[in-house]
Amino acid sequence: MKIQIFLILLYYCYSRCAFTVDENDKPIETDRDPEIIGTVEACPFFSDQPVCCTRSQDRSMIKDFKSLDATFGNDGGGCDICGSNMKRFWCHYTCSPNQSEFMKISGRQNMTDPLNSSKIIEVQMVTLEVHPQIACEVFSSCKRTSFATQVSAMASPGGFFTFQGEQAVGEGGQYIKVEFQESNSLYFEDIWSCNHNYSRTTEDETGIHYWDDFGYELHGECGCNTCENSCQSDKILYEPPGILYGFEGTYILFAWGWAILLSLAITIIRRCQQKKFELSDLEEQKQILG
Ligand SMILES: *[C@@H]1O[C@H](CO)[C@@H](O)[C@H](O)[C@H]1NC(C)=O
Ligand SMILES: *[C@@H]1O[C@H](CO)[C@@H](O)[C@H](O)[C@H]1NC(C)=O
Ligand SMILES: *[C@@H]1O[C@H](CO)[C@@H](O)[C@H](O)[C@H]1NC(C)=O
Ligand SMILES: *[C@@H]1O[C@H](CO)[C@@H](O)[C@H](O)[C@H]1NC(C)=O
């Protein structure tokens, strides 16, 4: 009995919301309890669970997730599993019943819209604590997508989330400062790596559809050009040349000088190019077949 009361107390201690939106979809601070709102279309795994998001936030997320698919998903030269991981991340951000545990709101500020430097907007200041494991795993499923590789700010897990936090200024009216720590931080289990296989299929008049475990459709596999884990491990781009093995490397180099070094370099470059062509051929074949 005592344990149950303790658990209930613990549940209520943790289960508080940090923000919600007003009737104009502007973010406002709150400390209300999570509520069951039924089906959460953008985050199916939160359906019929106590959540901090509202119906109108669910609708906004569906819209935002379409542009997320277009930038990080298969359609945008990316990988749908990266897209799915990011959707789950933003679902927890918006809907998690533990929101107040990993998020602090510190008032409002006027700042320049990063997407339009001549526009000043009032934003809610948010500090978001993210578990480092989440940051690394989500990042590694996304880092080869063409969008992430084009934006240099997203070259590291920290930059990846900071960049997206800054983008929320225009979209969500929030400025999100991302910090990383192990406890009291945004965390969820079972992040798929980008070469994960679909877990179930459905069929309708338009054909077969592939799905992950979280209710998101996967529109295709993520090949080597969008997912590092899909590159065959036996196709290593660089192979150390065999002749120097077992010899005293420096001695040989000293004796034969730059001639060997030069021919070695040319051989390595040739090998790399050959491997690259093989790889891109393989990718093309895969895409044609798939
Ligand atoms: C919320 O926190 C509790 C206690 O730490 C945990 O058991 C639960 O899984 C968390 N819920 C979500 C959706 O992360
Ligand atoms: C932001 O600017 C508007 C218009 O100038 C002003 O009404 C508002 O109080 C400012 N907000 C803050 C937090 O400074
Ligand atoms: C940028 O903001 C200014 C001022 O609000 C506005 O007049 C202009 O149309 C905006 N530009 C774009 C590209 O949205
Ligand atoms: C994915 O699963 C299907 C059947 O469930 C199997 O035929 C296919 O080989 C798997 N692909 C990979 C890359 O594991």
TrEMBL record:
It holds the Pfam family NPC1_N. GO terms for biological process: sterol transport. Keywords: Membrane, Signal, Transmembrane, Transmembrane helix. GO terms for molecular function: sterol binding. Residues 1-18 form the signal peptide. The chain crosses the membrane at residues 251-269. InterPro entries: NPC1_N. Residues 39-236 form the Niemann-Pick C1 N-terminal domain. One of its GO terms (cellular component) is membrane. This is Niemann-Pick C1 N-terminal domain-containing protein. It comes from Paramecium octaurelia. The lineage of its organism: Eukaryota, Sar, Alveolata, Ciliophora, Intramacronucleata.
